[in-house]
Design brief:
- It is a single chain.
- By secondary structure, this protein is α+β, with helices and mostly antiparallel strands.
- It is built from 35 helices and 26 strands.
- Strands 10, 11, 14, 15, 16, 17, 18, 19 and 20 form a nine-stranded mixed β-sheet that branches. The protein has an eight-stranded mixed β-sheet with strand order 8-26-25-24-9-21-23-22, sandwiched between helices. Strands 1, 2, 3, 4, 5, 6 and 7 form a seven-stranded antiparallel β-sheet that branches.
- The longest helix is centred in the last third of the chain and has 41 residues, at about 650-690.
- The radius of gyration is 36 Å and the shape is elongated.
């Protein structure tokens, strides 16, 4: 705990003289012993390793099994098609995964290239990779910190640590401070400086206490480098489905062989029949169709400013019921803004949308003028430089038509007394119309201590105790509202005075209250999310009161009791924290480790958690969350590399839109899956019943493969891009344990599939009956069987194509949704019939698939059979209760 030790203890422990620094020889020895000051990552997988990793999936095993089966049948073309599907899926996975895991590389880029250190009694600039523990590092404004330091000297030093803490304001540093509490948050360790943070003001010196992976940034890198093998709900569903289908295929083969023995059929013939049934049980195109639907979903998401880095994340969004959001830059605008100011007796609220105003009186003009002339920040054409607090003051002046450039030109600065963390004041001496004027800004209580008069209605009057109490009451009220308060004062003088005389007998003008305000559109988005059963949670490195104030305004929290700080989390046991996690909506002053702990706690209760953020400190939680969402504009490369999705507009509202899109995409994938399984069930029913009752086979394996890979695929894809349900955000999030077959989907699949299978057999029966044969007839001529199989083949395909319309909703009639509201599906069905007609009428194809052209009567009959499952499913929806729709 370096922050709890004095500088003397630190120097002694690290064996270094701060006046001379380390010797070159000692630095080299330490470098050889402890290694370079650079972050290390795990070895990257080769493209080949990534490719084979994509094959470690049960559904892929089933597909490969189907390829083996088709080769056994002798259908090499179908085997090649299946293998191409496998290759396509694996290639897509490799492309997606190769784009991921860039966080460590980004962290490495964040380490500074050059650093100032004291060695052999002189200051040298060296590569930051060569910095070692014990080095004395010199810091000044604009220089990055090369390693974790314990400060030994500081002069008005301020360091911008938002990447680690999430706070938008620079942190004041003081080498003399000591922190005895071992659980002191990073943002409050005022005697420390951390790797990759930026010094924005003042100067300082520090001794290196940690380098490389031992730094705070290094600890984050370690977390990011851990392998996390958690699967998304969709991946889990598909894995379960793949296993089930695999077991079904094996069971079918065994059952067929048993039946063969019982019926005394030729074993080889029954083996081929078993292969047909196994092929019927496997939806060969499913993995490819799911990948295509997800890819199309990714394209749609990009149009609403959400870039998805990992395909399954699209679906995961639809399951999210907890959004853990960083405050700064995500819920807020990431810029300090003056929202109130007070002059004697007058409190003014400032609109935040950037309108121009006119100052109501002299007091307001003088207040704004003093703040601007006592600031070094600039703001022109929407671009700013300098301290965020001072930028806010300059922006305030712009709103009141008081340009910073003009004021500084008219009132040239001739002297100043810089800000000091002990005084908490800054003063400047500027030329004025009648001589000179001192302008002072800083902590209000300190301003009041050095003031003897006040500006009231344009006149300077004596500052009474009653007036002091009024100023302090207003300041206290602003502080209660989580506003940062700054006071301003001035003093006229006839001549240039020294800095010691500047802060005496001043005239109080007033004070301002500022905050990093919420984004204007976020409140409505949070209300929409809550209406959809999603709980928004704020996680921030900022102070508790500030965080709660923002959370209350946005509707995230309703009271202070719903908040907890990082140090309070540390006081709870793991069991107690897990039990109480549901009570909190705001987590303040937290470290990266706390963020991970919070996300895991929510996940422990079965929640699907989304984590949003933009800083390095957010990266571990982004990676551990079910879906990590990084900010595209303000986000660091580290946070983007650790995320599943990036928002190009940094807008919380986009997250809600993305969740809505994710829900619709999952529903569409579910439609595709249920549709395909209904179709495959129909095939299994037709063949299984034929085998069970010792009838001729109504379909051949090649015919089944054609329907599974070609005819079914286009409607399945079209269902995958079905227009979204307008009511999807009025429902609770999908429960993580809900299967594809929940809420009646399984029953519909079984009813639809069974109907399709029976009607296929009926068509086969009518095809035989035309020539005077029945299902139990022996020695049926080949042309009769071919005619009957052709009718069964057309009914199976046609019934599935018509049935796809009914699958657009499990509860709403397709006529209520709009039969032509998905023209892709209409086109897919038409294409399916054209392909089916081509197979039957084109000689080369008809010979390959052992089918023949049908008579007009037969076409009419098969089309009538084909539309029955669609009609039955649509009619059944009309009997459902309105509450189920």
């Amino acid at each position: 705990m370096w922050f709890s030790k004095s500088t003397e203890e630190i120097i002694h422990e690290l064996s270094v003289n701060p006046e001379t620094g380390l010797s070159t020889a000692e630095a080299q020895a330490r470098l050889e012993k402890y290694g370079q000051n650079k972050l290390k990552g795990k070895p990257k997988k080769s493209t080949l390793e990534l490719f084979f990793a994509q094959l470690q999936d049960m559904l892929i095993y089933v597909l490969l099994g189907a390829a083996v089966i088709t080769i056994a049948v002798g259908e090499w073309v179908d085997a090649i098609i299946i293998l191409m599907v496998v290759f396509l899926n694996a290639t897509i996975g490799v492309i997606q995964e190769s784009k991921a895991e860039k966080a460590i590389e980004a962290l490495e880029k964040m380490t500074t290239p050059r650093s100032l250190v004291r060695r052999d009694g002189e200051v040298r600039e060296i590569n930051s990779e060569d910095v070692v523990a014990g080095d004395i590092v010199i810091l000044d404004a604009g220089r990055y910190v090369p390693a974790d330091l314990r400060l030994i000297e500081s002069a008005n030093l301020q360091i911008e640590e938002s990447a680690l803490t999430g706070e938008s304001l620079p942190t004041e540093k003081n080498a003399k401070d000591l922190h005895e509490d071992p659980k002191t948050p990073i943002g409050e360790k005022s005697n420390m400086a951390f790797m990759s943070t930026l010094a924005t003001y003042g100067r300082g010196e520090g001794v290196v206490i940690a380098t490389a992976m031992e730094t705070e940034i290094g600890k984050i890198a370690t977390i990011l480098d851990e392998d996390i093998d958690s699967m998304t709900p969709l991946q889990k569903r598909l894995e379960e489905l793949g296993k089930t289908l695999g077991y079904i295929a094996i069971a079918i083969t065994v059952v067929m062989l048993v039946i063969a023995l019982v019926q005394d059929r030729p074993l080889f013939e029954m083996f081929l029949t078993a292969i047909s049934l196994a092929v019927a049980a496997i939806p060969e195109g499913l993995p490819a169709i799911v990948a295509i639907v997800l890819a199309l979903g990714v394209t749609r998401m990009s149009r609403i400013n959400a870039i998805v880095r990992k395909l399954p994340a699209v679906e995961t969004l639809g399951s999210v019921n907890i959004i853990c959001s960083d405050k700064t830059g995500t819920l807020t605008q990431n810029k300090m803004t003056v929202v109130k100011f007070y002059t004697a007796g007058n409190l003014t609220n400032v609109a935040t949308e950037g309108r121009s105003f006119a100052a109501k009186n002299t007091d307001e003009k003088e207040l704004i003028r003093s703040f601007v002339l006592c600031s070094d920040a600039t703001y022109e054409n929407g671009k700013s430089t300098g301290d965020p607090t001072e930028v806010a003051l300059v922006v305030l002046a712009e709103k009141y038509d008081m340009e910073r450039r003009k004021l500084h030109k008219e009132h040239k600065r001739v002297g100043e007394k810089p800000f000091d963390s002990d005084r908490k004041l800054m003063s400047t001496l500027n030329q004025d119309e009648n001589g000179y004027r001192v302008h002072t800004k800083g902590a209000l209580d300190n301003i009041l201590k050095i003031s003897s008069t006040a500006l009231v209605d344009g006149k300077v009057v004596s500052l009474t105790e009653e007036m002091k109490e009024d100023y302090l009451k207003v300041a206290e009220k602003m502080s209660d509202d989580a506003l940062r308060v700054l006071g301003a004062a001035f003093k006229a003088t006839n001549s240039i005075i020294n800095s010691e005389e500047m802060e005496e007998d001043l005239t109080v003008v007033g004070l301002v209250g500022m905050i990093d305000p919420p984004r204007l559109e976020v409140k409505d988005s949070i209300a929409k999310a809550k209406g959809a059963g999603i709980t928004p949670v704020m996680i921030t490195g900022d102070h508790k009161n500030t965080a709660v104030a923002i959370a209350k305004e946005l509707g995230i929290a309703s009271s202070l009791e719903q908040s907890i700080t990082g140090s309070e989390i540390d006081e709870l046991s793991e069991e107690e924290f897990l039990r109480k996690i549901k009570n909190y909506r705001v987590f303040a002053r937290v470290s990266p480790e706390h963020k991970v702990k919070i996300v895991k706690a929510f996940q422990f209760h079965g929640n699907i958690v989304s984590m949003t953020g933009d800083g390095v400190n957010d990266a571990p939680a982004l990676k551990i969350a079910d879906i990590g969402v990084a900010m595209g504009i303000t986000g660091t490369d580290v946070s983007k590399g650790a995320s599943d999705m990036i928002l190009t507009d940094d807008n919380f509202t986009t997250i809600v839109h993305a969740i809505e899109e994710g829900r619709n995409i999952y529903n569409n994938i579910k439609k595709s899956v249920i549709f395909l399984l209904s179709c495959n069930l129909g095939e299994v029913v037709a063949i299984f019943l034929a085998v069970l009752f010792n009838w001729p086979l109504p379909l051949l394996a090649t015919q089944i493969l054609w329907i599974n890979l070609i005819t079914d695929s286009f409607p399945a894809i079209a269902l995958g891009i079905d227009p979204g349900d307008k009511d999807v955000m009025s429902k609770e999030p999908r429960k993580p344990k809900d299967s594809f077959f929940a809420h009646g989907a399984g029953q519909r699949a079984i009813i639809g599939g069974t109907l399709i299978g029976i009607l296929t057999l009926v068509a086969f029966y009518f095809g035989l009956a035309e020539f005077g044969y029945s299902l139990n007839s022996k020695d049926i001529p080949e042309h009769v069987v071919t005619n009957a199989r052709t009718m069964a083949f057309v009914v199976l395909a046609g019934a599935q194509l018509f049935f796809s319309f009914s699958m657009r909703s499990m509860h709403k009639s397709v006529f209520r949704i709009g039969l032509f509201s998905n023209m892709y599906l209409v086109g897919a069905v038409i294409l399916g019939f054209i392909l089916q007609l081509g197979v039957i009428t084109i000689p080369v194809l008809s010979n390959a698939f052992k089918v023949q052209n049908l008579s007009v009567y037969d076409w009419g009959l098969v089309m009538l059979f084909s539309i029955v499952p669609f009609i039955v499913n649509e009619v059944s929806k009309s009997f459902m209760k309105e509450s189920e729709i």
